[in-house]
Amino acid sequence: MSENVPFEDINQGNLIGFSMEKSDPSMLLGYLLKTRQDVIAALSHNQQLHYLNPALEQALTNLYQSLPADIDEFVSKILPSERQQSWNEAIQNFLQGKDASEYFKIFSKRTVDPDLLKMEERWHFAVEGINDGLWDWNMITGEVFYSKRWKEMLGYDESDIEANYHSWETLLHPDDAANAKDKLNQYIDGETESYSAEYRFRCKDGSWLWILDRGKIIEYTSEGKVARIIGTHKDISDRKAKELTIRKLNERLTLANKAAQIGIWDWDPVKKNLEWDENMHLLYGLEYGKQEITADTWVELVHPDDRHKVFTFFGLLAHGDGGREIMFRVRKPDGSIRHFKSSGETEIDTEGKPIRMIGVNYDITEVIRQEEVIRQNENIFQAAFDHSAIGMSLTSLEGKYFKVNKALCKILGYDEQELISKSFREISVPEDLELNLTYFEQAKKGECDTYEMEKRYYHKSGGIIWVYLNVAAVKDPDGTPLFFISQVQDITLRKTAEANLRVSEERLRMAVEAANLGLFDISIKEQIFEINNTYSDQLKSDITSGKNSAEFWQALIHPDDLEKVYQTYYQYINGEKNIFNCELRLKSSNDEWKWFHTLGRITTRDNSGNPLRMVGTMMDITERKINEIKIKEHLHELQRWHEATLGRENRIMDLKREVNILLQEAGKTPRYFSVL
Questions:
Q1: Per-residue model confidence (pLDDT) at position 33
Q2: pTM
């Protein structure tokens, strides 16, 4: 057999100039099989021509002896799968001596458009290149061919899927099945020009895969019924996932726009068409969908005083000039005035003309109000800063003053410009600077928000002043310190007074110790008793300061003195006495009763006048009391002796008087003239 031209290269041009006698038989046979619908041929297993119909026999005349051995392979390539299937079944039945007339009848009744055959061949190669699954539905036999890739993308093996329509139907997601089948039936019935459906298909592992299914009718029966549909399965899961993400983002954007009161507008300068979304209607106080929105509608809502600048802005925006946003006022249908901000972009055609403008509006009324509040607060702060009686400063992170008030200048003796040129380090007393810097660095690192301390500064005159310093860090929204605001109070007089008080207290302590006085300080409500060592020594007790109940101290008082103590206390707190002044006996640790003279004053009362704190002294007067008792006893003895002596003298006088009376009665002269 001569060298053959490949069947894939057969075309009309290959045959020009050849007669039937001179043409290569394989080339002629291939051309006839590819271009004519009335020829049929079959090849036996021993590679000999077994059958050819009259049309082919007439065409090939006596050249059938030279048919190529790969005729079946060629037929497979140029015939559709179901046509090839009928062909092959016809050959097999014919070779086995069976009646193949029905197969040939079916085969011969088909009408296949040669253009569709060419398109199918190109389509097969194209689909294989993009890795989609293929399906081929023979609606005459009911068989469906599913390609290997069709099954692989779902995770199935070749033998898992039966070649029928039911296999496709059972794999459809329940929520998608009705829609997918409706679309397919509508296409088959001629109600739609194409078939395309998106649905979920069940994979072998039970998961669901999104599929784009598209099909095309490529063959009809002689009666005009659909004989064959071919189609593709494309995995669109990634696209669906992206669409879902985009849909969720759009939903979030819509919600965010609604929450943020952001409306979207779209203006067509060519058609003079304006579109608003629902939020734009809400912003302008209009009911969505109730009226047509035009440029005139919008202009009427813009505040008259702002219309000129709005026209200017959008005129510049239309030509890509000017800024990208503008603030203006709107008078809503209810008469309320709102502040809006609008921003937009312009789409320009190749000639530089605007063909679309799109942008957003959002309500900034609250922002404007807040800015006004901030301005007012800034003015208030500035006034408070400038006129505060307390020294105030703003200090950089390097410790330099960049704003100071008059009070601070007065405290430190510098004028404003002199102080601004300095840092707090320069005017701090070295002994106080280390602690100040420690706090300052902690605040810079964000370890603390504020700090306070008492420290000393050098006055411009060279003297030293004491101040109470309170520092707070001012931070940005991220919490990073920007600068510090400080308050400075001059406490030099207080410090001097405290020093003098310490001297006085030391003198008092020495005097108390010299006088052997016990001191007490009672927090009445909390029942906290503070006493000095002298107090404990006087009682010869280990009583210490701390929280002790009233019952504890009551048990130390002599029972005979309790009533007097309480009476004196209540007379004092009720204003009947100027001071608590009482002598009482207290039990010492060796169960001896010791006399004390107690003096006390209420130093603190609450708003209702109830006593909160009492301080006083206690002096041990036991020895004095013992001496007083001895003196009283001695005086008592003297009184008794005096009274006894006086009684004797009175009796003698009475006797003398009686003698005088008797003498007088006897006519004699009285003897005792001292009693006459």
A1: 53
A2: 0.38
